[in-house]
Each structure stands twice: as structure tokens, then as C-alpha cells.
Amino acid sequence: MAEYHLRVHDLSKTFVLHVLHGKRILGFEHISFDVPAGAFAGVAGRSGSGKSSLLKCLYRTYLADSGSILLTTAGGQTVDLVTAADDTVIELRLSDIGYVSQFLRPTPRVPALELAARPLVRRGLPRGEAHDRVISYFERLALPEDLWDGYPILFSGGEQQRVNLARALASDARLLLLDEPTSALDAALQADVVQLLAERRDRGTTMIGIMHDATLLGQLADLVLHMEHGRIVRRETNSDRVAGLDPRSLAIAG
Ligand SMILES: Nc1ncnc2c1ncn2[C@@H]1O[C@H](COP(=O)(O)OP(=O)(O)OP(=O)(O)O)[C@@H](O)[C@H]1O
Ligand SMILES: [Mg+2]
Fold first, then answer.
1. Labelling 157: which of 3, 80, 100, 227 has CA 20 to 30 A away?
2. Is the CB of 218 under 6 A from ligand 1?
């Protein structure tokens, strides 16, 4: 039977807006899916269908209201990201989980190279090595050299997105969460990013990626979850990679 990297069961999230007298807004509800180790799960759906909220709950930026997110760690343990202690989540973000947000919110006055190398340096990699690794991705993403010591807060959307991508790709994360990682890039750069992500996937990294472009998703995703109004309404499998798997990973549940 397939080895799962991530198993999401009956996950729900509602936002309560206290400034609006407790008004409730649905993020998503009753989401269940399993991602086999080394597979790319695509998430598609209209604007507002709950895709980013789901990804943020997987990264624990948001705390889900109910359900479970079982992650198999590099150390072989199973951790529920809904109930895990904050310290555990912080550790996992350094060792196991990378995240490319839909919008970069860079720390002011931190140069691009420093910002992208930070997770590696925090994990104890010598600064020079961390910089070299990031630079190799800056080069592949055609980020001009004179921006490397510039402040990303001043960059264009596409430049910020490339800093964000280099930061995630340079890490050793075994699970990458990607929220529209190519939305601000031109077609040539999008193709480069798809190539980089495909290489990473083929080296065994598990990925969950939100993408609006069905062609790009088709090139990367082994399975696609289609969301509508906060629910998964359809699933499709795209590749042989998931063909031999336990059918429960693809079944609609919850
Ligand atoms: N922090 C928050 N507080 C209140 N409501 C939120 C919050 N984050 C998301 N929402 C709401 O949850 C719903 C889903 O938003 P989400 O950002 O997950 O959509 P999305 O599918 O990623 O859309 P898009 O394609 O536009 O990025 C929306 O109605 C949104 O207003
Ligand atoms: Mg979004």
C-alpha cells in the first residue's frame, strides 16, 4: 500500500469577525484528502472557494476548527498539525514544510539574499553555503544580480515571487505548499518554474499547489482537487504515479 505523506480528514475552518459583531465567514468545510509521498496534489477552484485558507491551515498560519492533518515527518513520526504545540510547528517549518505564499510580505530592510537564505541559516547551514544554494535558484529564476542585495519590499510582484520561490526551493523541505507560485510571472518564467518544481517532485518532494492555469497544473499534478464554496466537489487523477495507489487516497470522503 502507498505511503502517505499527508492525510487530511474532515477539516473545517470558519472565520469569526468580531469587529462585525461576530459575523461568520466560511473558509472551507469537511475537506478530506490524502497525498502519497512524492506526489503533487493540485488545488483548483474559483476565487474565494477556500484554497488559500486550506493551505494556510496546513501550514498552521490559521488554526482549523475541527478535523485532522496527519503529517509523516522526516523522522518518521506522525504529527497532527491541528493539535501540535506551536514549538513543534515552528520546528517542522524549519525541517519539513516549505510554503510559498500567494503574496510575499517581506520584512523591511532585509536584502533578498538574506531573506531567502534565512531558513537554511536558522537550521545551522554556514551562511556562505546557504547563500550559494539560494543564488543557484536566483540564477535559474533569472533574478537580476543587482537585486540580490536589494530590498524585496521594493521589488515588482514577479521579482518578489521569485525570491519567495527561491527561499522554498533552496530549503530541504519534504513537503512544499505553493499558493499560486507562478501567478505574477510571464510565460517563459512560468515554464522555468514548472521545470524546477517537476525536478523537485521527481526527487521525491511532496507538493500541494494552488494554480489557476489548467495547463500548468496538468504538467505537474498527479491528482487535482477541485473546490467550490469551501468544499471539494471533484477529484481527478492525472498520472501513473498515483495509479497503483490505495484508492482511498482519491475517494471523496467527509
Ligand atoms: N483571515 C480571514 N478573515 C476573514 N475571512 C477570511 C480570511 N481569510 C480568508 N477569508 C475568507 O475565506 C473565504 C475563502 O478565501 P480564500 O483566500 O481561501 O480563497 P481562495 O480560494 O484562495 O481565493 P483566490 O483564488 O482569490 O486567492 C473568502 O470568503 C475570504 O473572504
Ligand atoms: Mg487564494
1. 227
2. no
Verify whether ligand 1 is closer than 6 Å to residue 103 (CB atom).
no
| Ligand 1 nearest atom to the CA of residue 53, by list position | 18
| Domain spans, the chain | 4-96+173-249, 107-172
Distance 13 CA to ligand 2 centre (A): 15
Give the residue whose CA is nearest to atom 13 of ligand 1.
Answer: 27
Q: What is the pTM of this model?
A: 0.92
Hey, what CATH topology would domain 4-96+173-249 get? Rossmann fold (3.40.50)
pLDDT digits (tens, 9 = 90+) for 113-127: 999 999 999 989 999
List CB contacts of 247: < 8 A, sequence separation 6 or more. Answer: none
Per residue, the 3-state secondary structure of 102-137, as one string, reads CCCCCCCCCCHHHHHHHHHHHCCCCHHHHHHHHHHH
